[in-house]
Design brief:
It is a single chain. The protein is an alpha+beta fold. The chain has one domain. The protein contains 3 helices and 7 strands. The N and C termini lie far apart (105 Å). 31% of the residues are buried.
């Protein structure tokens, strides 16, 4: 006698028809709740991993700029490039024009522009801080500039209200030997705005969970908290810290005493 498909399944399972049942809604909800709980546990960890990856990439970019800087110094009798401004793209010696060719990249003045607006760089690029690239500050409001890194403006060699006693070199570059005993001299850093130059209060600590990265003249790269750049980490007051033992900006006002300058 032939068995029906239903009877065949009952025989194979070894269970009577009444003993078999489907998955209840309660069981589905329990499993779903467990999955959501595990996902909630994992998401913060994934976010931290992403932030850490962005920091590593940003520091790696600065390392590349450091390599370009050392090569430029070798070819330029150990003179430093100047910081320039976004209004003087063709100014001689500026870092954003003289350093990129050492990294097989076009100088900033040669980057393709459409209707005056700079073309977007790839997400993974020496010009791009991946954390800043996720924000509205990735470009200037006009779209003409996209600086994610800036040079320490004190090293421009031009006297300003911020550096009244710093030797005025005019538009001529400064010789690196001036800082030979200051290996922690800051040259480049990730910048908050879209400017090729800046000072302590311009370091982009807001993009890396209160952490900003700097490239030293020695070629090393390091990260610091906001409180290491401005007094009490308060950017609204913007009182600069000049005497941090591991952050030398090329100039220390006479009113500030520092063991690093002795």
């Amino acid at each position: 006698m032939r068995m029906s498909f239903r009877q065949h399944c009952v025989v194979r399972s070894g269970l009577p028809p009444r003993a078999r049942r489907g998955i209840s809604l309660l069981e589905v909800l329990v499993v779903f709740s467990i999955v959501l709980f595990l996902a909630a546990m994992m998401l913060p960890s994934m976010a931290r991993v992403r932030v850490s990856a962005w920091q590593v990439q940003c520091k790696n970019n600065l390392h590349h700029w450091g390599v370009a800087l050392q090569m430029y110094r070798d070819d330029s009798l150990d003179y430093l490039p100047t910081e320039g401004t976004y209004r003087t793209l063709d100014k001689p010696y500026v870092w954003y024009n003289v350093l990129p060719p050492y990294l097989d990249a076009p100088s900033y003045s040669e980057v393709r522009r459409v209707d005056g607006k700079i073309e977007d760089y790839p997400a993974l690029h020496i010009w791009i801080c991946p954390a800043k690239n996720q924000t509205l500050n990735r470009k200037s409001r006009s779209g003409k500039n996209q600086f994610h890194y800036a040079m320490n403006m004190v090293l421009d060699g031009m006297t300003s209200s911020r550096t009244p006693d710093f030797p005025d070199e005019g538009f001529l570059p400064i010789h690196a030997s001036r800082f030979v005993r200051k290996p922690h001299t800051v040259v480049l850093f990730d910048v908050y705005g879209n400017s090729p130059n800046g000072k302590q209060s311009d370091v982009a600590t807001s993009f890396h969970e209160d952490r900003g990265h700097v490239l030293y003249l020695s070629g090393a790269v390091d990260g610091f908290r906001a409180k290491d750049f401005v007094v009490d980490g308060d950017y609204s007051r913007r009182e600069l810290i000049w005497d941090h033992p591991n952050l030398y900006w090329g100039y220390t006002p006479p009113a500030v005493t520092s063991a690093a300058d002795e």
